[in-house]
Each structure stands twice: as C-alpha cells, then as structure tokens.
Design a protein that fits this description.
single chain; alpha+beta; 76 residues
Length: 76
C-alpha cells in the first residue's frame, strides 16, 4: 500500500506554524545560546523531520534559517 503525503490546508499550516513558533520561543528561553546561531534579519522556516530536503529546496528567501522540528528544535 502506498501512502500519500497529506496536503495541509492553509489554515492547518498557519495553526501549526503558530504552535511551533510558541514552542520555539519557549525553547529559546530555556537555551538562549541557540540565539547565536540566528543572525539578525533571519527568516525562520519550520520543516518536517521526515521531509527536510524537500522543504529546503522550495524556499528561495534570502537569509533563511531552517528549523528542523523533532522532539527538540535543531537549527540548520
């Protein structure tokens, strides 16, 4: 059986990213040293742990840092 990747609606994607943003801010409060990996004017994009290469190829935004979402946040 072949499983298809579920396409999220725009509303689902926005809600997911809002939740991830708050979780990420909480993680930065616990580990402020992570801020050193984020230069000024950085755009942040959260990517799925199962599809990191796919997500990173899509974005063409300069100054982008990709945040790999696992059990912890990992700045790429």
């Amino acid at each position: 059986m072949i499983l298809k990747e579920k396409i999220m609606t725009n509303n689902e994607r926005v809600n997911r990213n809002i939740g991830l943003a708050f979780d990420f801010i909480s993680e930065l409060c616990k580990h402020p040293e992570l801020l050193e990996k984020l230069p000024d004017n950085t755009n942040i994009e959260f990517i799925e742990k199962d599809f990191p290469n796919k997500a990173m190829k899509k974005s063409k935004t300069p100054n982008t840092k990709y945040i790999l979402v696992k059990n912890e946040f990992e700045i790429q």
